[in-house]
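Check the record.
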Amino acid sequence: MRNFLFLSAMEPLASQVADELSENAEQTKSAIEKFFDHFSLPKLVSAAILLVICIICIKIILRATEKMLKSSKLDKSCHAFLRSSIKIVLVFLAIMLLAGTLGVDTSSLLAILSVAGLAVSLSIQDSLSNLASAVVLLTTRPFKVGDFIEVSGKSGTVRQIGVFHTQIATPDNQLVYLPNSQITSAQITNVTGNALRRIEIVVQASYDAAPDTVKEALVRAAQHPKRVDFEPVFARLSGYGDSAISYTLRLWTAGCDYWNVYYDVLENISREFSRSNIEMTYPHINVHMGS
């Protein structure tokens, strides 16, 4: 009896829901039919012709932009970002022109796109953060294409600063794509940011070798043809160890010649120490026996 009364009470509600669904379906159908009524054959032909023209114009503009970027003095770090931005703007303008040709209300389309853009922006917050970080990197310029940097535990030569990622090539020629937001929030070391770099080498010599003799040998080892002449060579005793004396050698060279000069000077030190009979010791213990 209770089930019968419950079903009797629910019948008007179910009927009302069915009527509302039917009404909504009719409205949706009429809206779709009204939308497709705009697509007449002449408009479709005009839209197809306009689409071809837009594609050709976009390609011409992008090629002209590429030539202008190559001939301009603008830093190469900005090239990829500008190309991507210009392409997005051109595609958006083409869509708006095609919508106007088909008779679609562009104001309504803009409203729909704004709502869709809001929804998309909420779902791709990380990508937008990378985009904003790309703008920060291009405006503040902590590094540029061709610089050797160290960031987030990675080191390499910057190949490209993209819209979302920065591409660096490691010394063993691996490509690493770092998110721009990760770079801007981390400590950046620009190794080749300055024209000159200082080489510092610490070596150990025996207590039996006279400090002046060791320093003279180090100065001779630092005489490299690619050393910067206007910066003096620094060779001094820098510490006393348990079984050896530490000496520090410093010299300056161009950033592009750093590693070649570094390894050449290391080899020179070994030769000069051998010529001067200077022993490069290692950790050891001398045991003296009594009588």
